[in-house]
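Annex B. Sample input.
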Amino acid sequence: MVRAQARPQSNRPSQKRLNHSLRTSTKQEICTYHLVRVSRNRKTGPIPVTTTSANSCPPSCSFKGNGCYAESGPLAIHWHGVSEGRRGCTFDDLLLEIATLRRHALWRHNQAGDLTPEAPGVIDARKLTRLAMANRGRRGFTYTHYPPTPGNQAAILNANRLGFTVNLSAETLDQADEYAELGIAPVVVVLPQGAAKATSTPAGRQVIVCPASTGNSDCLNCGICQQRDRASIVGFPAHGSGAGRVQAVFFRANSR
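Annex B, continued. Sample output.
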């Protein structure tokens, strides 16, 4: 289980701020954030890691309620606590925490959850820019399942240009090619369970398997997902108790 090791003042949302948000925002727009300064996750290694409440996830994600690895196991317990507001902090508090991370620190945003939405399926570009600015001088990275609509593309491209790496998460190899063609961000893709060898997309792009997934490294010692200008697509084999359903999405879409 991932345990919180953030500073005490960030372990719980500011009630005053949350009450204000409840009066001025819709339920969709209110997200809770949690930072662990030294993760105990074997795959990430001992780096800072955040979790965002489940209402940040876009409705269009095929894995939502259908095999998402964060919806089961020890991480799910932590995620539920964040999603229910029992642990975590506000967005402003998160930015303060990020801005105090050591210089050049590698950190991962959203081991569960996604980017902050302005509306269902729409990234809050202003908040993403603020997050990227708080990251300046550090090596933050994340992944998003938000559809690359023109507005979302602009927000993601801007974040990457500001130094905060946002990877586009594809559900199939064909979609990975489509995302790579956009030229706005690096791309990752789900792979079948047990995938351990490099492969390629239909268009011939190289897909390497995440070293942390094969047990050969961790995020701290790899860092490839933070490299915004990389040529390779990074593949993540389906895992967790819902791996079969995730794999079914991959094969069903690729067989069309």
